[in-house]
Amino acid sequence: MIDVKKHIIESDVLVVGGGIGGLMAAIAAADGGADVIVAEKSDTRRSGSGATGNDHFTCYIPEVHQCGIEVILEELNNSLVGGNADPYIQLKFLSRSFEVVQDWNKWGINMQPHGEWEFNGHAYPGRKRIFLKYDGYNQKEVLTKEALKRNVRIVNKTPVTDFLTYNGRIVGAIGIDITKEEPEIVIFKAKAVISATGNTSRLYPSITPSQLFNTGHCPNNTGAGRAAAYRAGAKLINLEIPNTHAGPKYFERCGKATWIGVISDVMGNSIGPFVDKPTKELGDITADVWHSVFTDKMQDGTGPVYMNCTETSKEDMDYMLWGLKCEGDTSLIDALDDAGVSLKRDMVEFTKYEPILVGRGIEIDEFGRTSVDGLYSAGDEVGNFRCDISGAAVMGRFAGEHASGYVKDVNNDGIDLFSHKTVLEAQKFYSRLYENKGSSTWEEFNHGIQSILDDYAGIRYVRSKTLLESGLEYLDHLEQKAKNELIVNNSHELMRALECFVLLQIGRLICLTALERKETRGMHKRSDYPFTNPLLNKKFLTIRRLENGKNELEWRDMRIN
Amino acid sequence: MPPIIDKDKCKKCGLCAQICGLDVYGPYEKDTVPIVRYPSECWHCNACVLDCPAKAIKLKLPLSMPILYRRLKGEDND
Ligand SMILES: Cc1cc2nc3c(=O)[nH]c(=O)nc-3n(C[C@H](O)[C@H](O)[C@H](O)COP(=O)(O)OP(=O)(O)OC[C@H]3O[C@@H](n4cnc5c(N)ncnc54)[C@H](O)[C@@H]3O)c2cc1C
């Protein structure tokens, strides 16, 4: 049997995931007087999608924008992070976004790299611009230091695998210590848990299917928070509408809006209606609006589609290369150099990436609370709000603030977590995997999940009742085989194997919710319901596991206020 | 394939293994040159390249991830 560590790590607030949302939650909870632990899968200094930087921070600065907040809200919903969100949360987020910008600036993240509040990129000609250009290359280091200054304790290299509940409220979590070969189970006891494990990558084959970790967002984020929250009884929301990003081919990397070029055909002619000549103020928003431009042009033979920076001015080209560094895309710059690409005369092919979950996941309210008492969520793993870096930062703060107040009235005395059912079951299951005499690797398992989701619940083909139901059955078969046949040699492989069970679980929830959405909407294309049903406009679908193990699917209205 | 550590430059501080967001180095043994145990799990984020105090690390993109580009202009228009 895998050992459970004798020492329980106890705190008022446990933050799961030390990315942008998690660190901001930890800082706010500590400021609110709580004793805080961050459990992080790798190391907060360089973990997650914001590991080496970001450069666009969506926010509302009244004196710069010179307009009401509703105007900015509209732009937000017209942008790549809009839609599928509750406007009452978006408004609260916008109203406090500048406050976070100012704090980051004070702490040492340069939010005014050119001495002023500069908005550009992802923008429509003649409209308000909402993406503040900043230099985020040191954001993880700075936020880690701010957390440590407030006596937040950071437990690195400890992926959390499940949450613990007691009488319907959260009381802690369990994780695996991966600092040594031999895995050990770690128990965390807490009065509130803030889950912030980021996006879900690795559900679908990457654009280079042999490279599991060639993903635009961080491939270490595999949906642990979503799956644990679901098992704890929390509602998940908006899982069934696929979401994709785009960028260079075949090296997947986010940061499309940092490029200053025109989306062009092979002759170098602009494809979209927005710009002919690239400028740093606008970029070319075509791909944010026409998501399928890359695949459409491949399918009709008029492709490929390129990012064309050959007409970009010298000044804007320097600005773009500087921006890519702030964005954390130094490896992309190195790869372009290594390939001998000169952006002044070469066009780089762009493509659509595989679906990931961002802004599809855990349902929260305006304080970051989920439907389970004491469980909060923030950042990319939230399902009814999305605003990437600034969304994670601001909503992380809201969750931390609220949780630090909530824990004051909670008492966990006398709750024995060593004999908790979830701990015992996890110990049994992880030990079973570890002691299996199998010969199949977690990589095979991950590829198997990706193939099934791609074919039966993806965007490559359509979706339909027969396809989705077949997918569900195939996932069950694969899970059974994996339980018996996997080989797990050490703590690292145990972490990866458990990720796959989580991916499979999330895949199953995607199938179930996609079955329930009996219409076509966005990239959710149902061949048996080939139309968009107006009755489902502004309605969201939630799924939750009931105590009897059954799923409850519910529609609810988008919340305006 | 990535990352590649120059053994002669490496100061054996283990920082790369500690900060790696993907655990491609696995558990680190003190005072040794880190071993890249899980190269196929590299995200190519450059964190270890940027943070290595000895500048001893390079990333190499696998051949299966080539950058695709086409030349539009004959000459550099500097
Ligand atoms: C190259 C790139 C450029 C980008 N540029 C921009 C930009 O300019 N503007 C913008 O708005 N957005 C940008 N984004 C997106 C932005 O980085 C994310 O939206 C943001 O980081 C989300 O924060 P988060 O806290 O939700 O997740 P993350 O920052 O990804 O953090 C998740 C954390 O959870 C940890 N974790 C995962 N699983 C577990 C587990 N089981 N147990 C414990 N810990 C776990 C991870 O290790 C990580 O530390 C970019 C992304 C990339 C990849």
Question: What's the structural domain tally of chain A?
Answer: 3
Known CATH architecture of the largest domain in chain A: 3-Layer(bba) Sandwich
What name does the CATH topology of the largest domain in chain A carry? FAD/NAD(P)-binding domain
- Please identify which CATH superfamily of the largest domain in chain A we are dealing with: FAD/NAD(P)-binding domain
- List unreliable stretches of 5+ residues of chain A: none
β-strand amount of chain B: 5-15%
Strand percent estimate of chain A: 15-25%
Structural class of chain B: little secondary structure
Quick summary:
Chain A has 561 residues and is an alpha+beta fold. Chain A has helices spanning 20-31, 62-65, 69-78, 87-95, 97-107, 139-149, 224-231, 286-289, 293-299, 314-326, 330-338, 388-406, 421-435, 442-456, 465-485, 491-516; strands spanning 9-16, 36-39, 56-58, 131-133, 153-155, 160-166, 169-177, 184-195, 236-237, 246-248, 262-264, 306-308, 346-352, 361-362, 375-377, 539-545, 551-557. Chain A has three domains: 9-243 and 356-409, 3-Layer(bba) Sandwich (FAD/NAD(P)-binding domain); 246-352; 421-538, Fumarate reductase/succinate dehydrogenase flavoprotein-like, C-terminal domain (Methane Monooxygenase Hydroxylase, Chain G, domain 1), CATH 1.20.58.
